[in-house]
Design brief:
Elements lengths: L1 E5 L11 H10 L4 E4 L8 H8 L6 E4 L2 E2 L5 H14 L4 E6 L3 H6 L8 H17 L6 E2 L4 E2 L24 E4 L3 H10 L2 E3 L8 H12 L12 E5 L2 E3 L3 H18 L7 H23 L3 H6 L3 H7 L1 E3 L1 H12 L5 E4 L3 H11 L1
Parallel strand pairs: 1-2, 1-13, 2-3, 3-5, 4-5, 5-8, 8-9, 9-10, 10-13, 11-12
Antiparallel strand pairs: 6-7
């Protein structure tokens, strides 16, 4: 498996030492570096800023939220970054959830799969630059129906550096995972576990088997965000990851619509996920964190002494994952790279 570095999205401000970590990742031979966005920092600006100091490593978004921009605006970002990076850009997209889509962006959330299909199709048309872009869909129309009636089909003024820019899709549910296999070049899973490999293989195969699918298992990328903590004490290492898990399982989404909660329920932790969500939404965050068993952390992370991590890595090697996306500062990346080498 390849290694990538995931910077994530900012909390209250720019993360310290980010550029040093990006440069260390390139020095260590990492394949890619990724940025994200929630409802604060955007994904494109930090990637361009820090990526400008690199020369080889791929630059990806994990993820850009589709509701934040029209498909053509996202394609403009992609065209621009691909030129500036010399063809190193990877566009990672995601639907996010209804709380953010409707509460922050003021856009409708229903039918996210159909909207994603149209969105990706438009982005590809813009990047290919083979003709003025037209699209008459349920969610997007180019030119817009109605309005002044003066809308004109246009073609990007910028000629693409590449006729195709790789598009990855963030997905957790089986239908969305299948969609990533059908219309995209890669899948960005969150909270992947080797124990769930068969489930995801089935979903991916469903997408690969559809007419017009672009790839198969042999040339499809799966870049999974996986916490890796080298530490002599497994329980202490797990304690550093549990707060983030509690946030995602308990608080990242409405009670009835939380895709992260559903991932762990399918993994066999439904009772745990329900309890964590109940406690977190009640404001009892410390209790929610304490309700997460270390076994859950170990199923989705690589933690503990170096020898233990190397032994467990064999199970990950047998999965659909092609790239492990790591987090941490420059020193952490060095330690983890040495452990996984």
């Amino acid at each position: 498996m390849k290694l990538g570095y995931h910077l994530g999205y900012w909390s209250s401000g720019p993360p310290e030492g980010a550029l040093d970590a990006v440069l260390k990742a390139e020095e260590l031979g990492f394949d890619s570096v990724w940025t994200a966005e929630g409802y604060g920092s955007d994904a494109f600006t930090p990637l361009a800023w820090w990526g400008a100091s690199t020369s080889r490593i791929k630059l990806g978004t994990n993820i850009v939220q589709m509701s934040a921009r029209t498909p053509t605006a996202t394609a403009m970002h992609a065209l621009t970054l691909d030129h500036l990076s010399g063809g190193r850009f990877v566009l990672g997209l995601g639907a996010s959830g209804p709380q953010v889509v409707e509460g922050w962006y003021g856009q409708p959330y229903p039918k996210p799969l159909a909207r994603t299909r149209e969105y990706v199709d438009i982005v590809r048309k813009v990047v290919a630059r083979e003709a003025p872009v037209t699209h008459d869909g349920q969610h997007f129309q180019l030119p817009l129906r109605g309005g002044t009636g003066l809308g004109k089909a246009l073609k990007s003024t910028v000629h693409p550096f590449r006729k195709e820019i790789p598009i990855f899709l963030a997905a957790e549910g089986p239908k969305n995972v299948a969609l990533s296999a059908e219309i995209c070049d890669g899948w960005l899973p969150l909270f992947f576990s080797p124990k769930s490999d068969a489930f995801y293989r089935t979903a991916l195969q469903e997408g690969f088997s559809r007419p017009g699918a672009r790839h198969g298992f042999g040339d499809f990328e799966v870049a999974a965000s996986v916490p890796v903590l080298v530490h002599d004490d497994v329980e202490e290492a797990a304690s550093w990851i549990k707060p983030s898990l509690a946030l995602y399982i308990g608080g990242m989404g409405a009670k009835a619509v939380n895709f992260h909660h559903d991932v762990f329920a399918r993994m066999g932790y439904e009772d745990v996920a329900d309890k964590v969500q109940e406690l977190y939404l009640a404001g009892r965050k410390d209790e929610a964190i304490a309700a997460i068993p270390t076994s859950l952390v170990e199923d989705t992370s690589l933690i503990g002494p170096a020898e233990k991590i190397r032994d467990e890595l064999a199970a990950w090697d047998e999965t659909v994952v092609t790239t492990l996306l790591l987090r941490g500062d420059a020193a952490t990346l060095t330690t983890v790279a040495e452990t996984l080498s």
